[in-house]
Amino acid sequence: MTNRATSPTATAEVEQSPLVSPTSSRSVTETVNGSHRLVIQGYSLAKGIGVGKHIASDNFTVGGYQWAIYFYPDGKNPEDNSTYVSVFIALASEGTDVRALFELTLVDQSGKGKHKVHSHFDRSLESGPYSLKYRGSMWGYKRFFRRALLETSDYLKDDCLKINCTVGVVVSAIDCSRLHSIQVPESNIGAHFGMLLENMEGSDITFDVAGEKFHAHKLVLAARSPVFRSEFFDGMDEEKQEIVITNFDPKVFKALLHFIYRDTLSEDVESVGSTFSSVSSISETLIAKLLAAADRYGLERLKLMCESHLCKNISVNSVAKILALADQYHASELKAVCLRFAAENLAAVMRTDGFEYLKENCPSLQSELLKTVAGCDEDRSSGGKSRSVWAQLSDGDTSGRRVRQRT
């Protein structure tokens, strides 16, 4: 999430003849801010990776540039003999003389709020913001924290560290819009159409879903779904006033209608879409069933919203089941993420019950997974630093991948 923090401004005015109105412009220098959290799960397994070797976060975007957090469990400086852990922020995209402010926070996980913070925000800098000259330039601390103290502190809990990073990219522009601006409210078309669904005014079609009745409007459904459009206006159902829907729970169909009218997920879906009670129940969750409904009725945006929720739950134990769902309901984006994650964590994934399910029920996915494994190893051979997936399989070592596992 990004926001803007305004810095010094300069105003220039041009005096003209009394018959001509004066003009003005304003040069605004400000920071575009964004934050990212790196969770290091399995800190004890990361130790011993070697001095100068790091664990990298996913790239994140702030101010039009890509950034990454580098954590060095054994330190970056050989002279320190692994006495300290090191943390740096790196410019991960092309850029020249990118000026920025930084903040690094090691999170206190005891709940006392005593975080360790290194910040350039909210204080004057003698030489101004820092300049990163080119891609790969870094700013940070070789001696971020003494390792012996870190391992007995409240910053390490359940073998897990959490590091927050905030980047403020400095930008300058001539701003005219703020001198004369008109605020436009957010679109409320979804709320208006949602009222149609709630009060049933003008409804001309009824759906019977497991005995529960839902009233709707053919034109709205046809405008949103190519399947409904075909059923109502290209087929034999144009005169029908009631349709029986099979193989759907009423709760799922209600969430489907909510999206069709409001273009958002219902609160029920949002509340259950974040976590799974167990891996075996993934296919029975409301978000998984809504993915099936979106596929059935050709609602591509709803599919992607469901894929996004499911993607947040990908782990070694769940990836095989989610991959099977993605394949069944033609969720291509989610399927690609699952294949890549499974390939990068193959040794661990192969030991899960989900992988056994995959072998028995989705044999075609095994060949796709092997192709993805080959692609991952090709990436590494062209310059990547991670160990080969085949090397992981040969000795059963997955510790490097566990460190980067999403939780």
Automatic annotation (TrEMBL):
Which BP terms from GO are recorded? Answer: cellular response to salt stress; cellular response to water deprivation; protein ubiquitination
SMART domains the record matches? BTB (SM00225), MATH (SM00061)
Q: Note down the stretches annotated as region Disordered.
A: 1-28, 379-407
MATH domain boundaries: 33-167
* Database matches in InterPro entries: BACK_BPM_SPOP (IPR056423), BPM1-6 (IPR045005), BPM_C (IPR034090), BTB/POZ_dom (IPR000210), MATH/TRAF_dom (IPR002083), SKP1/BTB/POZ_sf (IPR011333), TRAF-like (IPR008974)
Q: Which UniProt keywords apply?
A: Ubl conjugation pathway
Q: Which residues form the BTB domain?
A: 203-269
Which pathway is it part of?
A: Protein modification; protein ubiquitination
Q: Name one Pfam family in it.
A: BACK_BPM_SPOP
Q: Return the CDD domains for the record.
A: BACK_AtBPM-like, BTB_POZ_BPM_plant, MATH
Q: SUPFAM superfamilies this protein is in?
A: POZ domain, TRAF domain-like
Bias (Polar residues): 1-10, 18-28, 383-397
Q: Keyword Metal-binding: yes or no?
A: no
Task: Please state which protein family the record places this protein in.
Answer: Belongs to the Tdpoz family.
The UniProt function text for this chain reads:
May act as a substrate-specific adapter of an E3 ubiquitin-protein ligase complex (CUL3-RBX1-BTB) which mediates the ubiquitination and subsequent proteasomal degradation of target proteins.
**What is the protein name stated in its UniProt record?**
BTB/POZ and MATH domain-containing protein 4 isoform 1
> Which source organism?
Theobroma cacao
